[in-house]
Amino acid sequence: MSTLELVRGWLRDAHRIVALTGAGISAESGIPTFRGAGGLWREFRAEDLATPHAFARDPKLVWEWYDWRRGLVAAARPNAAHAALAARPDITLVTQNVDGLHTLAGSRGVLEVHGDLWTLRCVGCGAERSDRTVPLPELPPRCSVCGDLLRPGVVWFGESLPERTWSLASAAAEAADVFLVIGTSSLVHPAAGLAARAKAAANAKVVEVNLERSGAGADAFLEGRAGEVLPALLAGG
Ligand code: BJW
Ligand code: ZN
């Protein structure tokens, strides 16, 4: 039996399926991943830019990166991997991505544990607004209420994940029979720890879909592009 057939059997028998996605699922939509080939913007790594410290030091630089990414995402379309998950509303979807492509593909109730690219939040008064303007007319953008700096509504290193979303994602992981880990390097915690929690809590089968194995501790590894593997794996479920 092929690994694909084996995992299709697990999915057929499962009562609760959870999928965790990362940047790799959007790679085929033309959005660069954070790490690996093409993972750099100018000479910076995500770890240099996605931090409160980087923003405090140089908000314009950090905003230039986000403004560039907002432009890429605005022009991108969901791919076959997003569509395959959207066609399975029985699967609880947790994403580390801030691009909104799962929702655009038709998934509902996506648990976006690292926030989203279109929310702007004031560092002074906390006011939030959704703004899809690309490019933003002024970098860094400023709050219309108090004049302080606006920041992207995403989760940076050293920051807590949105409490309610994270607790829903944790509870789903701990109740899962099958936990799919798709297109993530499994390096960034606490999201990277969800697969191990699923295994520890209910002995979930952990299945990884990636170009290369990460440290997700998968019971089954499906090597390949998410846009090719997921339609074959999830169709007819
Ligand atoms: C394909 C493909 C194709 C390519 N098909 N596959 C425990 C242990 C160690 C460290 C920590 C820990 N707990 C906390 C930490 C610290 C830190 C952390 O994890 N650091 C590690 C890097 C060491 N975590 C945090 O700080 C988190 N907060 C936290 O824990 O709060 C509590 C706390 C408070 C105060 C002090 C300490 C703790 C927050 C993490 C926030 C991460 N934020 C970012 C930016 C979000 C906004 C934005 O987008 O700009 O999230 S960083 C970046 O990495 C982004 C991503 O969501 C995240 C994960 O990346 P992802 O998705 O895995 O992408 P890549 O590029 O790494 O991998 C792509 C994969 O796809 C590869 O494997 C490819 O092979 C594959 N692929 N094409 C299928 N077609
Ligand atoms: Zn304000």
TrEMBL record:
Cofactor info, note text: Binds 1 zinc ion per subunit.
Alphabetized GO MF terms: histone deacetylase activity, NAD-dependent; NAD+ binding; protein-malonyllysine demalonylase activity; protein-succinyllysine desuccinylase activity; zinc ion binding
GO cellular component entries: cytoplasm
All residue ranges annotated as the Deacetylase sirtuin-type domain in the record: 1-237
Obligatory cofactor(s): Zn(2+)
Residue sites binding Zn(2+) per the record: 122, 125, 143, 146
Enzyme class: transferase
Entry EC no(s): 2.3.1.286
Active site (record annotation): 114 (proton acceptor)
Localization: Cytoplasm
A Pfam family annotated for this UniProt entry: SIR2
Assigned keywords, A-Z: Cytoplasm, Metal-binding, NAD, Transferase, Zinc
Annotated NAD(+) binding sites: 22-41, 96-99, 183-185, 210-212, 226
Alphabetical list of InterPro entries matching this protein: DHS-like_NAD/FAD-binding_dom, NAD-dep_sirtuin_deacylases, Sirtuin, Sirtuin_cat_small_dom_sf, Sirtuin_class_III, Ssirtuin_cat_dom
Keyword Transferase listed: yes
Binding-site residues for substrate, renumbered to this chain: 66, 69
Gene3D superfamilies in the record: SIR2/SIRT2 'Small Domain, TPP-binding domain
Sequence similarity: Belongs to the sirtuin family. Class III subfamily.
Role description: NAD-dependent lysine deacetylase and desuccinylase that specifically removes acetyl and succinyl groups on target proteins. Modulates the activities of several proteins which are inactive in their acylated form.
The protein's name: NAD-dependent protein deacylase
